[in-house]
């Protein structure tokens, strides 16, 4: 008999079915036991009336892997509207130990460190795992949007000879006796590949030796990177990013509707035109509204980003707002300056509900501009990066979306570790 | 005017167009110059007759980024059947240096090390980059096949506390002052995740500190991993793998037909039933055919794999053949033994044209079996891995496909570095 999943009982009313999954919980009443079976798609209620079967099943520990053969019956008591009657329950894989916490409750009753220490068990909790369906949907939405625009997927080295974004916060490796580093981003490689495919993307891990133990720092996270050539300005990049975000939202609905419902996610609407405000204008607006002296500061404080998030929501009904034109002083050396106001850059942040979600912008493309930005001296290990620019690079730009940050914002997770399968940080190297 | 790509000239016959790309080559005849423009999709021929324009263009170095405005004219001389007449050619990004080798020839006239040292330029060569369109298509085919079967994409840690596959060949990292390693595979994590989603996959880099400088060893490669629960045996895994391979072939045709044509790739046909031969039977067949004493050896030599590849082609018309039942002695400790012949395993290799392409199999799922396989002693750092098995794991198995190996086989590349964007090996850490 073909296996039936827990979310497909309605299609088999009054028919015999075979379910497989994990024994989530059993509730023993005077004459009947309710056994909850969890599988990849949901939870099925199994009603055990037979005395001998009840006795046998009472011995099974939570998380025992079981197979249930029984009949589907409509029931108003069951959450799904259907339950299994007259079951035969067989053990596929026995459990002899109590799980470190109960999975049957609406939320796991344990502190985050305990949850993370026991991730392999905790992730089985329906609300926990739901967040990772959203991760999968986000990756798919990112890719399908860019595929349809003719981007090519690439895979770049994660072991590099020199730090890319900055000298700090890199992990050092012993590379066959030579020093090497884990890549902090695919930045230089995706730029090189603009010379090959014009439009490229990569979803891959990046590594930051963040010495901070905060709710938003990870030593490894998934970076969804895109880069595109033959742009007029960073505005072309922002247009593609808007499409990508819209695609990620759409794919979440298509691929992860159950997860969205379970987590009560209020999906954002991506307006056709995400509002754009220049960094300097943003500062002036904030100064005018709050009375704080903000204009001239080199960056926006978190409180200012929140203010902008509220402004975008109130004035434009948008959960998103672009801030463009960040000061060059605060952007990496490869950032393209605003030709009219060279102290500002052709770069941007995309804020989602008042928090930075994406950073991007136009990059330098002329070799001479790179030399000038590096004060004429190419740091060791950078030669290979700059070579591409010697041999003709079009105006180009791109962006990077942190997968875990996106899912955290979507689900309202307070700590990015809640939406990371097996997080790595200053203190955590296992499981 | 919207940009037109080089492969779309036919749709614009006798119309004005705007092209952008790289100056691949210019051929100067007595009264006319032929300028070849390369963009992401192909090559367009531009005919320059105007004397002043010819003079200007003659100054432009190969790889100069240019914009061409002109008129599309049908022409029997042009490879595509169309060329651009009466062009105005503007420089977008100038080049002042000769490229390290010419990109205009059918093949790059340089040794592989030189090509790899100058990858950012070499990859622009149409035949070079074509291989990476096949990589992109392979990844997409892998994912779409598994998506349609209900698999969930995951992202697992690449920094781990203990070596997974074996103690050898791992890269050591300084992890905030503690020792850590780069993951050799997502093996243990994908198994844990079977307890969560039942069916999972991941495409991500893996790292091997291979001390061998051969045509097939890389220090980093892309592993396309899948793992699935509630299987009857490794045969269920083989069935999914067959579908995945077929999906990868189909997607190559759909997404990369130009690349296939350019490289003259003879796409394999994946039969509905890929032939399966038991390891022992394979040895007996080889012994009978060759007279070599093979039966009883713990593994197949490359020559034996080639023999099996030819056998599959001749006897079954298949480019693929499964060898199942490898001796336990040659498989990792987590491999599931054949219940009837416990010296053999429920694992397999998939050979493609006589070379190993994929390794997979059923895994142990009972905690007690893991303890026994580890002689009762859990190595340090492994506790967190085994926890998942304490709390109910169904029979499961999976496989891993090396992306670069697949593309190398498909294109007939002699060296896997030819189909790796920026390879990392014993001697190579840049570019």
What's the quick description here?
Two copies of one chain form a homodimer. Chain A is α+β, with helices and mostly antiparallel strands and 431 residues long.
Q: Strands, helices and their partners?
A:
2 copies of one chain form a homodimer.
Chain A (H helix, E strand, L loop, with lengths): L15 E13 L4 E7 L2 E7 L2 H8 L6 E10 L7 E12 L18 H6 L1 H4 L3 H23 L3 E2 L5 E2 L11 E4 L2 E5 L4 H11 L1 E9 L12 E10 L4 H22 L1 H7 L12 E3 H12 L11 H15 L3 E5 L22 E6 L2 E9 L3 H7 L9 H8 L5 E7 H9 L20
Parallel strand pairs in A: 3-5, 6-10, 12-13
Antiparallel strand pairs in A: 1-2, 1-4, 2-3, 4-5, 7-9, 8-9, 10-11, 11-16, 13-14, 14-15, 15-16
Largest sheet of chain A: 8 strands, mixed
Mean pLDDT of chain A: 95
Low-confidence stretches of chain A: none
Q: Could you state the order of secondary-structure elements of chain A as H and E?
A: EEEHEEHHHEEEEHEEHHEHHEEEHHEH
Could you estimate the helical fraction of the residues of chain A in percent? 25-40%
- Tally of alpha and pi helices of chain A: 12
Q: Bin the strand percentage of chain A.
A: 25-35%
Instruction: Categorize the overall geometry of chain A.
Output: elongated
Give the CATH superfamily of the largest domain in chain A. Bira Bifunctional Protein, Domain 2
Structural class of chain A: alpha+beta
